[in-house]
Amino acid sequence: MLHCTIKVFFLRTFNRFLSSSLGGFQHASIIKQDLITFFVPFLPLERVHIRSCIRQQLKSLLEDEPYEYEYSEDKIVDEVLSLIEFSTYDSFEYSPSGCKRVEQKLRFEFEILRSKLKRKEKRVHENL
User: In 3D, which of 44, 48, 72 has the Cα closest to residue 58?
Assistant: First the structure.
């Protein structure tokens, strides 16, 4: 149901944008000359989707680290989430940039946290 709501919201907004007399594409030469044959829609991501992106990026970031850290994943995710811009429409929050800026924000936040976290060197597992 929620996915359907997002799709409807996007299609309405996109159609409004395309047909807008104040800057829409309806009179653009690239449309009139059939240079654009189709549009690839960008569906804005909700907070829950961004949270998932942050978790995946954190996992990837920690795989390359030489240390194991004692940390609260939720705390780090919440800190990074607070750095992401969200827009509200019909009581839903959407990130206009999607997950594009997640890695940058996560690395920034992790650099700050790194010095505060307890850490120990990772154990190397060798096959014998």
Answer: 72
Q: How many domains does the chain have?
A: 2
Report the b/e string of 35-54 with b at 16+ CB within 10 A.
eeeeeeeeebbbeebbbebb
Look-up: residue for tokens 């790194």? 114
- Cβ atoms of 75 and 109 closer than 8 Å: no
Q: What is the pLDDT of residues 31-81, one digit of tens each?
A: 677 776 666 666 778 899 999 999 999 999 988 888 888 888 898 999 999
| pTM of the predicted protein model | 0.64
Asked if residue 128 is part of any domain, the answer here is no
